[in-house]
Design a protein that fits this description.
Length: 130
Amino acid sequence: MSNGFRNFFSRSISDIIFDLFVVILCILIFIIIAYPLYFIVIASFSNAQYVSQGKVVFLPKGVSLYGYKKIFEDSRIRLGYKNTIVYTLGGTLINILFTLPAAYALSRKRFRARKLLCHFLFLQCFSMVV
């Protein structure tokens, strides 16, 4: 038997109780965080009357896509999604175009300005944090 299994089976009662406590705590925290997110999703598919009356708890009632239909009829929502996609793709492309050559140049020991640029970039990153 390997050392890991031997250590697992030779644990003390206090270790087992502590591990059980941590697992239960993690499950409770997960439920506290996940249920509101889940409720938003099922409420978005439910009839608004059932949601306002508090009849929607775990499963959607009176399944309807009316809310989604109304949201996507608004041209500002479509424009917002388009802008989000353009900014994300454009920002990522610009970031890669500048970061890759800089990383390559800074990885070369022969690059004379390497030390100066590394200090400059470090100070830039540090100033953003502070």
